[in-house]
Specification:
Layout: H1 7-21, H2 24-32, H3 39-61, E1 67-69, H4 73-82, H5 89-108, H6 111-117, H7 121-142, E2 146-149, E3 153-156, H8 162-179, H9 185-196, H10 207-212, H11 237-240, H12 246-271, H13 283-300, E4 305-307, H14 311-316, H15 322-332, H16 335-338, H17 347-360, H18 373-388, H19 392-409, H20 418-432
Antiparallel strand pairs: 1-4, 2-3
Helix pairs in contact: 1-15, 2-3, 3-13, 3-15, 4-12, 5-12, 5-13, 6-12, 7-12, 7-17, 7-18, 7-19, 8-9, 8-17, 9-17, 18-19, 19-20
Organism: Spirosoma sordidisoli
Pfam family, one: Xan_ur_permease
Protein name: NCS2 family permease
Length: 435
């Protein structure tokens, strides 16, 4: 595909990225509402955070990366902090805010960018490919093409299922459009797959569609829903700023730190958006934007914001500048009022794009010297553990730790910089903290 920047390409890329990330507008409230927060309030907070911080990423950091509440971080908020530890939701929001303040300090002191620079290159290449596999897995799972199987852990769904057939049609169609270098191929694929999904529940009955989680193509629930600002400023700053809550603040900070770092590294590596030193472009500004998103998340009433790996969809479409993030961010804003329209696009319509982006992100692994095992084995662990553990953080942690242990064991201690030893300490702490 052509990577020559143009307004048309950047706008198409921004819309593509939005279509791949728009699920967060519904998924995030669905998860956080289980922590006792109002669904409509979280939805409003999600839209506002995604809009403002994606705009900041585009205008200030000038990178084509969308920022929104992080998947995984919202699960930690709900199931670990609130339900597991019994913390009130308002206090948990305060912990999110303080984690953001910690981020800001680390960013202003350039500590986070220093961490990126100590990541060994083979690990960096592996993380990029691992994120690609992770995105692919998410796509297959969204389409219910890969399902749970008690006998083999995972399996492939029956092809007789109309949902699966629709996904396969969309995947092959989008792949052909991409290979033929059709302008706007990913968006065209999403639109045509959406149209192909129309008969689900209408001509084949509702059974398979209900199991899939989408009743019909257009599950129309109205046109306009007023925004709910009830969570704005509802965080408990005093209650959350206590020694007892520091483990929670640390967990938010550590998880978001490595999720965002690995996203910047992986997306930049796969998309070629790097500076003259081979580092992710405008890294300091990007990390500062990410820090602001976490701080703002606590104020608005949602879980921490972070850079989104689905931004790779827009980069694969040709997005290379901040305009991509600006367009994607602006696409969120109307859903302050038009959130019911999200039901028009089912998950199987964006799933093919996610799967294909995984292929686009595999290229960096060709730069790993697979014949040099002390480089290859840590890279391999990082590569496979990201999708297998369903966690970018876990892949990065085990890549770091195995790199250190193997390099020291074979007498190559010089390949382990001092900064990596410090990061290893935090990796061990994170593992034994249970997250």
């Amino acid at each position: 595909m052509s990577h020559t920047p143009s307004y048309r390409t950047e706008i198409l890329a921004g819309v593509s990225t939005f279509l791949a990330t728009m699920y967060i507008i519904i998924v995030n409230p669905s998860i956080l509402s289980q922590a006792g927060l109002p669904f409509s309030g979280v939805l409003t907070a999600t839209v506002l955070l995604s809009f403002f911080c994606s705009l900041m990423m585009g205008l200030y950091a000038r990178n084509p990366i969308v920022v929104a509440p992080g998947m995984g971080l919202n699960a930690f908020f709900t199931f670990t902090a609130v339900k597991g530890m019994g913390i009130r939701p308002e206090v948990a929001l305060g912990a999110v805010f303080w984690a953001g303040i910690l981020f800001l300090l680390l960013s202003l002191l350039n500590v986070r960018s220093a961490i990126v620079r100590i990541i060994p290159l083979p690990i960096r290449y592996a993380v990029s490919a691992g994120i690609g596999l992770f995105i692919t897995l998410i796509g297959f799972e969204n389409a219910r093409f890969i399902i749970a199987n008690p006998a083999t852990l995972v399996g492939i769904a029956r092809l007789s299922d109309p949902v699966v057939l629709t996904f396969v049609f969309g995947l092959l169609l989008t792949a052909v459009l991409v290979v033929r270098d059709v302008p706007g191929a990913i968006i065209i694929g999403i639109v045509l797959t959406t149209l192909a999904a129309w008969p689900i529940g209408r001509y084949w009955g509702d059974a398979s569609a209900i199991n899939f989680g989408q009743r019909t193509l257009v599950n129309f629930q109205g046109l306009i829903a007023a925004p709910d600002f009830s969570l704005l400023g509802k965080l408990d700053l005093a209650g959350s700023f206590s020694w007892a809550l520091w483990p929670v603040i640390f967990a938010f900070a550590f998880t978001d730190l490595f999720d965002s770092l690995s996203t910047f590294v992986g997306v930049a590596e796969a998309g070629g958006i790097q500076d003259e030193n081979g580092q992710p472009r405008n890294l300091n500004r990007s990390l500062l934007t990410d820090a602001v998103s976490t701080t703002l998340a606590g104020l608005l009433g949602t879980s921490p914001g972070t850079a989104y790996i689905e931004s790779a969809v827009g980069i694969a479409q040709g997005g290379r500048t901040g305009l991509t993030a600006i367009v994607a961010g602006c696409c969120f804003l109307p859903f302050l009022f038009l959130s019911p329209l999200l039901s028009v696009i089912p998950a199987i319509a964006t799933a093919p794009a996610l799967v294909l982006v995984g292929a686009f992100m595999m290229k960096p692994i060709t730069r790993i010297n697979w014949g040099q095992l002390d480089d290859a084995l840590p890279a391999f662990l990082a590569l496979v553990l990201i999708p297998f553990s369903y966690s970018i953080t876990q892949g990065l942690i085990w890549g770091f730790l195995s790199w250190t242990v193997i390099k020291v064991a074979v007498g190559k201690r010089r390949d382990v910089p001092l900064g990596l030893w410090i990061v290893d300490v935090f990796c061990v702490l994170a593992l034994f903290s249970g997250h």
